[in-house]
Amino acid sequence: MWDYSETVKEHFYNPRNVGAVEDANAIGDVGSLSCGDALRLTLKVNPETEVIEEAGFQTFGCGSAIASSSALTEMIKGKKLDEALEVSNQDIADYLEGLPPEKMHCSVMGREALQAAVANYRGEVWKDDHEEGALICKCFAIEEPLIVDTIKANKLSSVQDVANYTKAGAGCSACHEKIEEILDRELKARGEIFVPNAVRPDLAKEPRTVDASITSEMLAASKKATKPKFTLVQRIQKIEKAIAEVRPTLQADRGDVKLIDVQDKTVFVSLTGACVGCQMAGLTLNGLQQKIMEELGEFVQVVPLSKRQLEEAGL
Amino acid sequence: MTVSGIYFDNNATTKVAPEVLESMLPFFTEQFGNPSSIHQFGNQVGRKINSARCQVQNLIGAEFDSEVIFTSCGTESNATAILSSVKAQPQRKTIITTAVEHPAILAVCDQLDKEGYTVIRLDVDEKGRLDLDTYKRQLNDDVALVTIMWANNETGTIFPVVEMAELASKAGVMFHTDAVQAVGKVPVDLRTTKIDMLSLSGHKLHAPKGIGALYLRRGTRFRPMMRGGHQERGRRAGTENTASIVGLGVAAELAQKRIVAENTTVRGLRDRLENGILSANSHCYVTGDLSNRLPNTCNVAFEYIEGEAILMMLNKKGIAASSGSACTSGSLEPSHVMRAMGIPFTAAHGSIRFSLSYYNTQDEIDRVVSAVPEVISRLRQLSPYWSKEGPLKENAQAFSPTYA
Ligand SMILES: Cc1ncc(COP(=O)(O)O)c(C=O)c1O
Ligand code: FES
Fold first, then answer.
1. CA distance A226 to chain B (A)
2. By the CB < 8 Å criterion, does B362 face chain A?
3. pTM for the complete prediction?
């Protein structure tokens, strides 16, 4: 069975706040029977203070769906609506001490039910814009729609591109076959041919006109200087500087990033707060990688280390 | 796991029978020789492998012992059969299978599909049955292989493979059956059939995991998947998994002896379990072809709750079963078998498979029957589709989420 954390199991076996809150004034319904999970969140909101006084849930779904619902109600009780809306699906997962990548959508459902309930309270219409699809990359919990959209928006053409933009495929690489299949389809759709084992095209050719800039900037950066022109200490200082620039964004999300080691062109960091699997973390790392490359004027790869890897390395 | 755990998941895997384990141990110690070697160390082992081959031959009623090829598992046997059929008959470009096969068949077919083959996936009705007329119409000279499971792993539904093999043979088409779930549970007598290839797997019949066999009728055109040494007459190269082969032989012999018990005692236990569950719980029903099923399998769909949650609750009570629910596999859709049968979503997500073995007891059945209702009612209390009295009438109005 799944490797559920003790907290997930505890919330599943002893769910908090089960059932509909009587005289609730905010109701959020998401999911459906066909999806295999559905959640109704009922809240009693104090109209004066907008504080959530009571929260109850009814969930049709698997163990982690029930645990996520239970966790959500515990997290938002006593919060003002606006504070409650700050709760992200990652926060729910963190509260539960992590969810398996296949189950991250359960925490997404929780957050969406909350948004729906708040919209209901405020008399607004809430529209779900979260697209769910087949899970492609288990290492980073990345689903097909995100990969497809990113390929389309940025005209990506290699597995490496996809890994750089979405993080999908940047771990164990077991998902590369599936990513290649998506690329093959998407490239065909825009009249190109997917060449799986081509040399990195952006390194071989002049930069193509691409919408987003990471790839071409990478190229520019890597062209500018192939030989590091700084001493090790200088390099580390530059890297720390780049990290300091992205840190506030992460801290706003109650996360943080720390430099662990620099080995040649690889920069090892640890991410805290935000789970390494989260999409935001992927974007953050890309941003960070780009900043460091700008600082150093050379190509580097930023690699996040997991808690376990850090422990194994005694760090 | 607790010692008092109740294991009702024998279609997933079975425990190794004590006799089987016993027979295997010497092959890890003094009988370590390579069966291909000339000297006495190898020689004795070679003889033991041959007797295991005969034991398997007897279980499946093969005419010759050389028709049994040992492989590493059911999955390998399946892949070998399918890939051999297309390699050996390059002019034929169609595969006929069903929509409810095990992934070990479906994924290989899907791959061939991508490579340009035509794959016909026969549909099943609401009880999981095939329509033989549709099947007959698909048989022609372009078909390289018909591959149809003998019994379905989720519902236990048995397909008329003997009859289907006759039809294929008349049309001059090769026939394979994935009998991983059937061998040892229902009588199999291949010499009286037109089945050309059959897959079986050790760990479903109290042999260890990682050993299987492919039956290959003498004269059936064949191309090996693994080439190399002359093991298995060059049809499956690689030094033999001697201990497991010997274990599979003993397990085959045990299974043959127990085939009657399987169809009387085990069937009786299964029926007791099924009737007990159906009468103690509302809004649940058995899926599959009730009158034509493996004697050990019972698949119950519980409405308005989700399978993984049921399994976790059962697990806490020391009961092991399994589910065709999406969430156990990490996808969002219920099992392809439930979908193929058109089981409504209200129930498909909550389908639970109980699969028994020779080693289960009536006491275990009764304990499970009395444990299930609490699990079901607790989860229904959590469900937005359920009120105190039962399912909410007109769900669409009572609970209508923004997106579906
Ligand atoms: C019908 C069927 N075919 C094939 C297999 C795969 O067998 P193995 O695990 O030996 O590869 C299974 C086992 O789950 C099965 O139930
Ligand atoms: S599954 Fe995508 S990198 Fe591991």
1. 42
2. no
3. 0.80
Q: Which tokens in the block code for residue A167?
A: 């993080």
The tally of domains found in chain A comes to 3
Task: Mention every residue, 6+ apart, whose C-beta is less than 8 A from residue B221.
Answer: B84, B88, B89, B174
Beta-ladder partners of B284: B302
CA distance A54 to A51: 9
Residues A220, A276 within the same domain: yes
Domain CATH code at residue A143: 1.10.10.1100
Tell whether A94 is covered by a domain. Answer: yes
- Residue A130 falls within a domain, yes or no? no
Q: What is the rounded CA–CA span in Å between residue B350 and residue B371?
A: 17
- For residue A35, the one-letter residue type is C
Tell me the chain B residues in contact with residue A37 when contact means C-beta distances shorter than 8 Å: 306, 327
pLDDT higher than 70, residue A205: no
**Structure confidence at residue B400 (pLDDT):** 57
Q: Is the ipTM of this complex over 0.90?
A: no
For the stretch A155-170, pLDDT in tens is: 999 999 999 888 899 8
Domain that residue A241 falls in: 211-312
Integer Cα distance of B132 and B146 in angstroms: 13
Residue A64 CB burial class (10 angstroms; 0-12, 13-18, ≥19): buried
Burial class (CB in 10 A: 0-12, 13-18, 19+), A52: buried
In a domain, A163, yes or no: yes
Q: In this complex, is the C-beta atom of B395 within 8 Å of any C-beta atom belonging to chain A?
A: yes
Beta-carbon separation of B332 and A58 below 8 A:
no
Alpha-carbon distance of B244 to B73, in angstroms, equals 11
Contact A36 B330 (CB under 8 A): no
One domain, residues A14 and A115: yes
Q: How far is the alpha carbon of B12 from chain A, nearest alpha carbon, in Å?
A: 13
Q: Are residues B162 and B263 in the same domain?
A: no
Q: Quote the number of domains for chain B.
A: 2
- Please say whether the beta carbons of B85 and B73 come within 8 A: no
Judge whether B9 lies within some domain. Answer: no
Q: What is the CATH number of the domain that holds A20?
A: 3.90.1010.10
Please state, in angstroms and rounded to a whole number, the distance separating the CA atoms of residues A221 and A164.
Answer: 15
Q: How far from B119 is each of A130, A306, B82, B136, B158, CA to CA, in Å?
A: 34, 43, 12, 15, 22
The pLDDT value recorded for residue B60 is 98
Residue B6 lies in a domain: no
